Amino acid sequence: MSSPDAASPHDLLVVRPSKWTLVVIVQLRSGTMRFNELRRNMGGVPQKSLSQTLRELERDGFVTRRAYATIPPRVEYDLTEMGQQLLELADRFHDFALRNREAVETARRRFDAVGEGLE
C-alpha cells in the first residue's frame, strides 16, 4: 500500500501546457513585464488566451503577478524560481528541436510519400 503523499504514475504530469505556455515563459526570460508588453512581444496571441495562460502559470507557481492600484491599473508578471526551471526545460526543448529539425522533416516527407497510413 502506498503512502498518501506518494504520487501515482498518472499524477506525474502536473504541468499541462497550453499553446502559449512556453512562449510566455520564454518572453519573461528578460524579467518583469506588463500584460500589454507581453501581448505585443508575442504578436497574434488573443487577449483571452494570454490571460488564461498567465492565470494557469500563476496558479501552478511558475509566474508571480503584481497588481498596482493605479489609474489605469498596472499589472506585472515575473518568473518564479520554478518558472526559471521551466525556462531551462524550454531552452533544452528548443535545442532538441533545432538539432533534430532535418531528421523530423525527412521523416515527415517519408511518411507523406507513402500516405498517412491505412486504417
Architecture overview:
By secondary structure, this protein is mainly α. The chain has one domain: Orthogonal Bundle (Arc Repressor Mutant, subunit A), CATH 1.10.10. The protein has helices at 21-27, 35-42, 47-59, 81-114, and strands at residues 33-34, 63-68, 74-79. The protein has a three-stranded antiparallel beta sheet with strand order 1-3-2. Strand 2 (63-68) and strand 3 form a beta hairpin. The longest helix has 34 residues, at 81-114. Residues 3-105 form the HTH hxlR-type domain.
Task: Produce the secondary structure layout.
Blueprint: H1 21-27, E1 33-34, H2 35-42, H3 47-59, E2 63-68, E3 74-79, H4 81-114
Antiparallel strand pairs: 1-3, 2-3
The CATH superfamily bears the name Winged helix-like DNA-binding domain superfamily/Winged helix DNA-binding domain
User: Alpha-carbon distance between the termini?
Assistant: 42 Å
The average pLDDT is 87
Strand proportion, as a percent range, falls in: 5-15%
CATH topology type? Arc Repressor Mutant, subunit A
* Cα gyration radius (Å): 19 Å
User: What is the count of helical runs?
Assistant: 4
Tally of discrete structural domains = 1
Give the overall form. elongated
Specify the CATH architecture: Orthogonal Bundle
Count of strand segments: 3
Query: Which secondary-structure class do the elements indicate?
Result: mainly alpha
> Could you spell the SSE succession in H and E letters?
HEHHEEH
Q: Report on the biggest sheet.
A: 3 strands, antiparallel
Low-confidence stretches: none
**Fraction in helix:** 40-55%
CATH class value = Mainly Alpha
